[in-house]
Design a protein that fits this description.
14% of the residues lie in helices and 40% in strands. It has 584 residues and is mainly β.
Length: 584
C-alpha cells in the first residue's frame, strides 16, 4: 500500500468513527412497561443500543418528581431499585434521562413510558352520613361515603344492628373511586348501634373508616306533669310549671312549657288556665300534653266555681272564662289554642301572626246575658244558639294573617234547626256572617269551622225548621242522622227508625220476615200506584194478570195436542174417497 492510499484509508476511517461517535444513544425503558402497576422499591431497567459508550448515569423521573439516579450499570444496561413511595399514589408517565458526565450534563438519550400506576397505600375512606351520634326515627338509613384508591376493588358496610344486616351490602359493582357511594339499609330495629365501612384494593390492602354511633328511635318521650290536672291555686300562690320527660333510649330529655304560669287573679271569679307541655327527643319524636289549673279569686264573695272550669266575667253571672298565654309566637307559625268547651261553644282557635309576638294571650268568655256584653242582640232570636267573646291581649287583629275558629253545635239543637244553615257571626258595627263549613260529626255534636278577620263578640246561628218542614231556604235532609221534629218513622225511617218488629228498607218500615210486598218487590209499579194506599191493590191486580197469562198458555198447549191427534185421520179419509169419484 503506498502512502497515498494509506492516508486516504485513514481519513475514511476517521470520518466513519467521528460520525459513529456523534450519533445519540438509543435507549429502551424495559421496566416498567406501559400501564404497569408499581409500588415499594421498584427495580427500573434501561437498556442502550450498542453504538456507543457515551452514557454513564440514568435519572428516573415519575411525573415531575426526580426519583433516583442509577449508576450501577454495564456498558449497555442500567438497572437499579428506586423507592416509589416518594410519589403519591396515582397514574404517571415515567421518563429515563441518560447522561454522560459526573453531573446531569451531556444528555445523550431520553425514553418515556406512559400510564404507569403508582399505588403504595391502602384505600382511604371519608364517611359522610349519618354523622356521628346521629338519631333517626326511621328504620331505613342511607350510609354515604367517598373511597379513594387507584386500585379500589370492594367496599362493605359493618353495623352492629344484627348479624343478618352486617356486611350484607357489598359494593363490588358500580363502585366509583373518588365519588360518593351509598349503602341503603332497611328495617333496622330500635336501639343504639355502631357502624363503619371497610374497603379493599386489588392488591389486598384494607382500610376501615372511623366508627360512628347511630340511634334508631321512633318512640316519643313520656312527659311528667308538674302538677295534677285541675289543681286549684289561691291568688298569689307560687307555681312551678317545669315538666320532666323520659325516653326509652335516652333517659334525660328536655321538657318545655308554654302558657301563663302564675296564680294572679285580682277578680272575683275563678279563672282557668292551661299550660302546654312539649318534649322532643334527639330523633325528632315529639310528645305533647297539657295541664289545666284553676286560680281562685282573692275574694270569693262575687262569684262561684262552676263545673271546675272557672266562672265570672262581665258577660253574666256564672259565665265561664278561659285564658291561654304564650311567651313567644314566631311570625308565620301556625299556633293553636285548644279550648274544647261545649258550654262556651269553642273547640279550637288557630292563629298565624305576621310578626313575632311576645307575652300574647287569648281570653274566651261565655256570654249568658247579651245585655251585659255591650253588643246588640242578633236580629232573630229564633236562630241563636250561643254567644261568646274572644279578647286578645298583647296582639291585635292587624298582627294576624289568619284567624280560624272551630265551634260545636249540639245534635239536640239541630233537631229544630237546619244544619246546612249554621253560621258563625262576628260583631263589627253590626252582625256579619263569616264563611262557615262543617268539619265533622260526633255522637253528641257537629263541629264547624269559620274564618274570621279578627276577634270580637260572636254568635252561632242557624235557621229554625218549622213544623211544615222548612223555614225560608232551610230544608230537612232525610238521611242526615238527625230525626227532626217534622220527621217520623213513616216519612224517614233512615233517621227515626221503625217500630218493634219492623225494619227500614228503602226508607220504608217493613215487617220483619215474610211479606207479600217483599215477595213482589221486583215488580216495578206505575207511578200512580207507588203510594201506600194503592200498593195492596196493585199487588193483587198483578197477581190476577199473571194467573190469566198462565191459564192462557195451558189452553194453547192442550189445543195444539188435540189438532195433532185428529188431523192425520181427516187427510187419510180424503185421499181414500177421492179416487172413487174419478172412476165413475
Amino acid at each position: 500500500m503506498n502512502k497515498r492510499t494509506f492516508l486516504i484509508t485513514l481519513a475514511i476511517i476517521s470520518i466513519i468513527s467521528l460520525t459513529y461517535l456523534a450519533i445519540a444513544d438509543i435507549a429502551t425503558l424495559i421496566n416498567p412497561p406501559n400501564n404497569e402497576i408499581i409500588y415499594g422499591n421498584y427495580s427500573f431497567n434501561v437498556s442502550l443500543d450498542d453504538n456507543s459508550m457515551l452514557a454513564n448515569r440514568t435519572v428516573i423521573t415519575i411525573g415531575t418528581t426526580k426519583l433516583c439516579n442509577i449508576t450501577n450499570f454495564t456498558l449497555l444496561n442500567f438497572s437499579g431499585g428506586c423507592n416509589t413511595s416518594l410519589v403519591s399514589d396515582g397514574t404517571y408517565d415515567v421518563t429515563a434521562n441518560l447522561y454522560n458526565g459526573t453531573q446531569e450534563e451531556n444528555l445523550t438519550a431520553t425514553v418515556t413510558n406512559t400510564n404507569i400506576i403508582v399505588d403504595n397505600n391502602a384505600p382511604s375512606i371519608a364517611s359522610i352520613s349519618p354523622e356521628n351520634n346521629h338519631a333517626n326515627k326511621s328504620a331505613n338509613i342511607n350510609f354515604t361515603y367517598t373511597p379513594s384508591d387507584v386500585l379500589l376493588h370492594t367496599c362493605y358496610l359493618n353495623g352492629s344492628w344484627s348479624e343478618g344486616i352486617n356486611k350484607s351490602s357489598n359494593l363490588t359493582n358500580n363502585l366509583i373511586n373518588n365519588s360518593v357511594n351509598t349503602f341503603i339499609v332497611n328495617g333496622i330495629q330500635q336501639g343504639i348501634f355502631v357502624w363503619n365501612i371497610t374497603c379493599n384494593d386489588s392488591l389486598g390492602r384494607t382500610t376501615t373508616s372511623d366508627t360512628r354511633n347511630l340511634t334508631i328511635d321512633w318512640t316519643a318521650p313520656v312527659i311528667t306533669r308538674p302538677f295534677a290536672n285541675g289543681t286549684e291555686f289561691n291568688d298569689g300562690d307560687s307555681i312551678n310549671c317545669s315538666c320532666t320527660a323520659t325516653d326509652n333510649l335516652n333517659p334525660s330529655q328536655t321538657c318545655t312549657y308554654s302558657g301563663t304560669c302564675n296564680a294572679n287573679n285580682s277578680g272575683t271569679s275563678s279563672v282557668q288556665r292551661t299550660i302546654y307541655l312539649t318534649a322532643i327527643d334527639a330523633a325528632g319524636n315529639k310528645a305533647e300534653d297539657n295541664v289545666i289549673y284553676i286560680v281562685l279569686p282573692a275574694s270569693t264573695s262575687g262569684g262561684s266555681q262552676e263545673n271546675n272550669e272557672g266562672a265570672g266575667g262581665s258577660e253574666g253571672s256564672g259565665a265561664i272564662s278561659k285564658e291561654h298565654c304564650w311567651d313567644v309566637i314566631e311570625a308565620g307559625v301556625t299556633t293553636n289554642y285548644i279550648v274544647d268547651d261545649p258550654d262556651i261553644g269553642i273547640s279550637k282557635i288557630t292563629i298565624i301572626p305576621k310578626t313575632n309576638l311576645t307575652n300574647a294571650c287569648l281570653n274566651v268568655k261565655q256570654v249568658i246575658s247579651i245585655t251585659e256584653a255591650n253588643v246588640p242582640a242578633y236580629t232573630d232570636s229564633t236562630k241563636v244558639y250561643k254567644y261568646f267573646k274572644i279578647e286578645p291581649r298583647g296582639m291585635t287583629d292587624n298582627d294576624l294573617t289568619s284567624v280560624i275558629i272551630e265551634f260545636s253545635v249540639s245534635n239536640k239543637w239541630l233537631e229544630t234547626h237546619d244544619k246546612n244553615s249554621v253560621k258563625l257571626n262576628r260583631y263589627s258595627g253590626g252582625w256579619n256572617a263569616l264563611p262557615t263549613s262543617e268539619v265533622e260529626k260526633t255522637v253528641n255534636e257537629y263541629y264547624f269551622s269559620a274564618t274570621s278577620p279578627g276577634f270580637s263578640s260572636f254568635v252561632i246561628t242557624g235557621d229554625a225548621i218549622s213544623t211544615g218542614g222548612s223555614s225560608g231556604n232551610a230544608t230537612i235532609t232525610c238521611g242526615d242522622g238527625i230525626c227532626s221534629a217534622s220527621e217520623n218513622s213513616t216519612t224517614c225511617c233512615k233517621d227515626c227508625g221503625c217500630p218493634a218488629g219492623f225494619e227500614c228498607k228503602n226508607n220504608k218500615c217493613e215487617k220483619k220476615g215474610f211479606s207479600v210486598s217483599s215477595l213482589f218487590s221486583w215488580i216495578k209499579l206505575p207511578s200512580f200506584l207507588s203510594n201506600k194506599f194503592w200498593f195492596g191493590w196493585a199487588v193483587w191486580i198483578w197477581i190476577l194478570i199473571g194467573l190469566v197469562i198462565i191459564v192462557a198458555i195451558v189452553l194453547i198447549i192442550l189445543f195444539r195436542k188435540k189438532i195433532h191427534l185428529h188431523f192425520p185421520f181427516v187427510i187419510s179419509f180424503s185421499i181414500k174417497k177421492r179416487p172413487d169419484y174419478g172412476f165413475r
